[in-house]
Specification:
By secondary structure, the protein is α+β, with helices and mostly antiparallel strands. The protein has a domain of about 70 residues. About 15% of the residues lie in helices and about 40% in strands. It has three helices and 13 strands, in the order αααβββββββββββββ. Strands 5, 6, 7, 8 and 9 form a five-stranded antiparallel sheet that branches. A four-stranded antiparallel sheet has the order 1-2-3-4, with helices on one face. It is globular, with a radius of gyration of 23 Å. About 35% of the residues are buried.
Length: about 350
Amino acid sequence: MLRRLLSIALIFMVMAVPSKAQDKSLMEAYQTDMVDLFAKVRQSDDESVRLAAADEAAAMLEEAMQQEKSFNWNWKFGDGVSVLTAPDRQFKIVTWPVVRDNGEYRCYGLMQSYNSKTETYDVYRLVDKSDEIMNAEESVLPPEQWYGVVYQELVVTTDAKNNGYYTLIGWSGIDNLVQRKVIEPLTFRPGSSKPQFGAPMFRKEKNLRRIVFEYSRNAMVNVHYDQQRYKVTENRKEKVNGRQVLVQDSHDQLAQMIIFDEIATMIPGMEGLTQYYVPTGTEKAYLFVDGKWELHDEAQGRASETKLNKEFAPLPKKAPAYRMKNRTANDTDKGSAEGGNSESEE
């Protein structure tokens, strides 16, 4: 409490100095307090302390984001907090997890998005309602009904008319048995800065608004935007013995894609119980084609430029970013939060 009072006093003190120095001092004051709060979120052995620190950090970040020119500040929160900024400066999104004593995750988030009418940035609190959302893959969700995940990648794509599209890739620990990764298009309501999570951007999968992977807590599943190879099959007509016949040609092609592991149950008869789902060894990909994500069944991620069906070093599996230390006695996942994505000050 004393620390908070001292920070409030500092915020009032900097109001007396010139504007540029004032902006920096104010943001530094906010950041100092929030770094301490995020350390409690990651390190405290008391669940009530972790949750209270997360709530206080969310309220403070919301207050900080409402300050003039705060969008220009690049937050440095360290491991455990993701900060993603759109290259066109349309929005900035900050997300982080809190783990409860029973291993369940709750995610927190704040978003600043540009309002073209007021020429300012509006602030939206993201409220994790993932436990209450039915048919998550088919739902378009507002900030107050957010399918809580920690966003690890922001993918920006354009169509032939140079229209821009945003897609987020995120992760959540869920509980002691299951974890989740999500591919989620992000749009904004027409004429508004208010974000909408999920969109019909998956070709030939008209009911999908996001892709959700749920799998074993002990498995490692890649979902990553990268330049990789996929197999292309083309039909062509060829004259054989005076007749036109249809011939298929296959070749591999290099492209940017969201490449991911196919997952399935490792125990026959356990279909639908996602705690038993693991990678099958097959990789698939979504390629962005004419404003839509198009599924390709044959992709092969590799750490080198080797072509398909040649010897290669596969993409390494990575431990889930932003996983927090569990406090349950039977949990085998030790260590602190990992995978921070903070930015440096401009």
